[in-house]
Design brief:
It is elongated and about 45 Å long. It has a five-stranded antiparallel β-sheet, with helices on one face. The protein has one domain. The chain is an alpha+beta fold.
């Protein structure tokens, strides 16, 4: 359930909604970048704050869609980014 926001030969950025346990949904953003045998990643997850939880399912999808296409600033809180780098050959 992701929308690709930008894509090049060496990078990909996508935004969407993911299912979480206990049953629920949170916004997420992921960015992958390939550099000289490594794949760097940054993942941000919505924090499930009061604003996010107050939105209906359709309003959540609309908010994430508008954020993904750059027509809205996110109104929800993000967790600390998860970052890392993986080696590949």
């Amino acid at each position: 359930m992701l929308r690709v926001v930008s894509e090049t030969a060496d990078s990909l950025r996508a935004v969407g909604i993911m299912c979480v346990l206990p049953p629920g949904e949170l916004p997420m953003e992921v960015e992958l970048t390939r550099r000289k045998g490594t794949l760097a990643y940054i993942v941000r997850l919505g924090a499930g704050d009061v604003l996010w939880n107050s939105l209906s399912e359709s309003k959540r999808w609309k908010a994430v869609y508008l954020y993904a296409i750059g027509e809205r600033v996110e109104g929800w809180a993000w967790s600390e980014p998860l970052t890392g780098c993986l080696q590949y050959s």
